[in-house]
């Protein structure tokens, strides 16, 4: 039995609780939130304030950190990893090396596995395998909801609500399977926008010309009503492909996720068990998925070879 704590209770926190409740070899000691615990409605797990975590050190084997990558994890992962084994889903690709160092600097006798999820995470593994075996890889994201692009749409004047779906280009995927690399124009962007009073053509022009987000991309804008948006995108679907090819052989890994946070949480839980095993083996320090031997993810794995 591994004793888990869930730190932060947003989408991932809920997903981790759900995933752990389905396991018979896990005990959830508690959810630890920076908000007033009485305002955080769990699926039955006791909720404590964040500060209480450090008083319960002896009752917890692994903390699964479910805070946001932008502001929470850069602070929480080093802070908590001093005392606990941890797993986080830090997904700011350009900052992973710094984050790894910051966490590692705090560790003496614990294990922390950072940047776990589907990307970074499982896709990182597939990129490494593709690159080492075939000397190439191309990553395609979607079809799925891009949180960042959806947020950018919602900031446009006259937009009441919006979702942006990133769609991988079939043509670019075919070229990747033929061994082409350094592909441009790999994705198109489809926007579903609920508008207020502002003229639709003005909104569309502003969206398509937004630098850093839509300018230079093939972008389609659909104006829909709020009910359509709610009913069509009730979860946060996502997924994608990592394709490696040298023209003769193809390696392809596909993810099709009905809910991005649900799947990411399941990956976090799997690596939570790995953190526990690695602590038992004395493999202290901060690690990425590249440092975690697959055998630590699943016991009794010999029959799967
Ligand atoms: N590697 C991957 O594949 C992958 C995939 C998906 C996401 N991610 C990363 O995971 C991070 C977390 O994603 P998320 O969707 O779980 O973020 P989220 O729902 O925004 O939750 C982040 C934190 O916000 C806090 N929070 C404050 N007020 C809240 C409220 N009213 N309701 C819910 N939470 C509230 C929670 O901490 P408190 O309980 O302490 O307030 C929670 O832990 C993202 O930043 C992303 O970078 C990684």
Annotation keywords:
alpha/beta; 2 domains; single chain; Rossmann fold; 14 strands; 4-stranded mixed sheet; globular; 305 residues; 7-stranded parallel sheet; 31% helix
The global form is globular
Bound molecules: NADP nicotinamide-adenine-dinucleotide phosphate
Distance between the termini: 25 Å
Uncertain regions: pLDDT < 50 for 5+ in a row?
none
Mean pLDDT across residues: 96
Query: Pairing-aware structural class of the strands and helices?
Result: alpha/beta
Spatial ordering of strands, largest sheet = 3-2-1-4-5-6-14
In CATH, the homologous superfamily of the largest domain goes by the name NAD(P)-binding Rossmann-like Domain
Determine the strand fraction and express it as a percent band: 25-35%
By CATH, the architecture of the largest domain is named: 3-Layer(aba) Sandwich
What is the C-level CATH assignment of the largest domain? Alpha Beta
Number of domains: 2
Order of helices and strands: EHEEEHEHEHEEHEHEHEHEEHE
Helix content: 25-40%
Radius of gyration from the CA trace?
Answer: 21 Å
User: How many β-strand stretches?
Assistant: 14
Quick one: biggest sheet? 7 strands, parallel
* Number of contiguous helices: 9
Q: In CATH terms, what is the fold-level topology of the largest domain? A: Rossmann fold
